[in-house]
Amino acid sequence: MAEHSKRLPAHEQLFICTGGGPGVMEAANRGAHEAGALSVGLNIALPHEQNHNPYISPTLSFKFHYFALRKMHFMIRAKALVAFPGGFGTLDELFEILTLIQTQKAEPVPVVLFGRDYWSRLINFPMLMEEGLISPEDLELFTMVDTPQAAWNTIQNFYRLGEAEQF
Fold first, then answer.
1. Topology of the domain comprising 1-79
2. In whole angstroms, what is the distance from residue 71 CA to residue 91 CA?
């Protein structure tokens, strides 16, 4: 995404934005950094001392005290959500954005769940549909993928960014 966006005018560029922590978040910020692109980190003050990772663009590193404010800033700016295996925070953010899209309180964005096996074991989406708790159309609010290329293709297809670029 960083490579794709570098070639676009500033008003059309997409940016990597993460929770600013270690692991997958750090990897995403590092990828943008190594591609020469800006990246955003929306960190949260936690008792476990989560610090921002070193690959966030210094002027785009923010620290929040409240999850709700952090989530709001992310959601009003996000053009896509790629959720990797995670815990309560990941689930909170995922379900919040799916609910806002489902209830038409937010514009649709591609929601990509990375790791089909993980998400299929964690959440029984077909059972939720069978029980009438979500509608069949709600299963179209997200896409499960297993490769970075499939995630990027999902975002490109959603926005009709042209031929799917390979990397």
1. Rossmann fold (3.40.50)
2. 12
